[in-house]
Amino acid sequence: MDANAVKSDLVLILDFGSQYTHLITRRIRSLSIFSLCISGTSPLEAITSLNPRVVILSGGPHSVHTPDSPSFPPQFPEWAEANGVVVLGICYGLQLIVQRLGGEVRVGEKQEYGRMEIGVEKSAALYGSKRVGDRQLVWMSHGDEVARLPDGFEVVARSQQGTVAAVENRVKRFYGLQYHPEVTHSPEGMETLRYFLFEVCGINAGWKMENVMDEEIKVIKGTVGPEDHVICALSGGVDSTVAATLVHKAIGDRLHCIFVDNGLLRYKERERVMETFESDLHLPVTCVDATDQFLSKLKGVVDPETKRKIIGKEFISIFDDFAQELEKKLGKRPSYLVQGTLYPDVIESCPPPGSGRTHSHTIKSHHNVGGLPKDMKLKLIEPLKLLFKDEVRQLGRILNVPEPFLKRHPFPGPGLAVRVLGDVTQGNALDILRQVDEIFIQSIKDAGLYDSIWQAFAVFLPVRSVGVQGDQRTHSHVVALRAVTSQDGMTADWYYFEHKFLDDVSRKICNSVRGVNRVVQDITSKPPSTIEWE
Fold first, then answer.
1. C-alpha span between 240 and 419 (Å, rounded)
2. Feature table: binding site for ATP
3. Is the pTM of this model over 0.90?
4. Which residues are known catalytic residues?
5. pLDDT exceeds 50 at position 365
6. How far apart are CA 270 and CA 265, in angstroms?
7. Quick one: which of 441, 505, 513 has its CA closest to 476?
8. Checking phi first, is residue 411 left (phi over 0); if not, alpha (psi -120 to 50) or beta?
């Protein structure tokens, strides 16, 4: 999907490293407005080429006083004003506007973190019908504060401590919020964003998933030549399945799907997935059993990043072999590989585009982003790479992918390799994990909880504990259960099970799975942890 081809107005977020930046993108898309996030240090050409109607400067962990603090290009303010582009700075973004346009930012006498009450000081474009004196709770997270405004700016709201909370320059169309309106801890923040985008900026809510589908089909047809053939790597998950269905709609039988059993799948995953592909989706799928190939390369490997790299390399090797077989059959070698890369994959796998890695850190390399070898012969097609998971599910419904399949919990590309902490080939770790995971997931389904949970799974821990089973001392394995709620996988809260449910599941696991004598539950949110353990 090309941002320039989207018919609706674009809201561009310049990312300066805030943990909430992705939430701004999500909140805006929920209003049927297309939004994208790129590095805040991107050159001006990268910004202007996207032709945004609005630019939002995100928050970040930096101080504008430090010499290496990230900033927008020097010519950005003049370009925005000359082209009628509305600019909103949030937290650090507000401070950048103030400092770069001639104002002053200083270290705050009283730092503000967490919930804080602010009050409207004068009639403001940002707050619409709000009257002077109206108050609201917001989420603050800053140590610096605005001391002096640039010419033409005015304070329109202050915190209960007297700190500048909102500013605006209606002539230049530059606005700023010292707090985070995008988080749920700012109860009226979404209404502020809605009013700002629709009333102040005049944006139209024209971004629809049907338009995304039509546009992506055009892009695929324009990319893949009329005689070209395409390989799609199916994992059995929602993302790759929707991607395959979309490409199949665009080019028909020139799509050739491959499902690889890498020995790292869940309990009976291969049989269940292949049946769905054949009976429900009617996709042409070749199944390849590469268990020995993968596990032999993973023997002795404990580092999760190394696992991901190895798995990514082996997948590509198999895809190349599959392409050679197709070449013999078709007389023409496939040129492209389809993958179900999503926007969170891109965000988490690398710094924002154009970044010199000065203010963003790689969380993990995804198998379909950071794990691919540089000498890969196939060219990538990633039709979902600007979409979040819930948006992919919307697209899948439009493409008539069966609802039960769309509701499947996410499963990582590296499979159980990132759910066995340590060497996946040691002992019977994979078999134990498959059995535990099956009991856990089936119990969730039996309790009617599956659709209320974003993702649930079991983890094999590299520790043993002493237990008593059958009046005998045991020294067996420990497994962990993880279940989270989320909207897009970028943040998540742990799911609160009733104690009876956990008691029942724990008993089933310890009584049914040989080699396990202890079950623990992960009650950590994201952040600070990731959803997967690794």
1. 20
2. 235-241
3. no
4. 91, 180, 182
5. no
6. 7
7. 513
8. beta
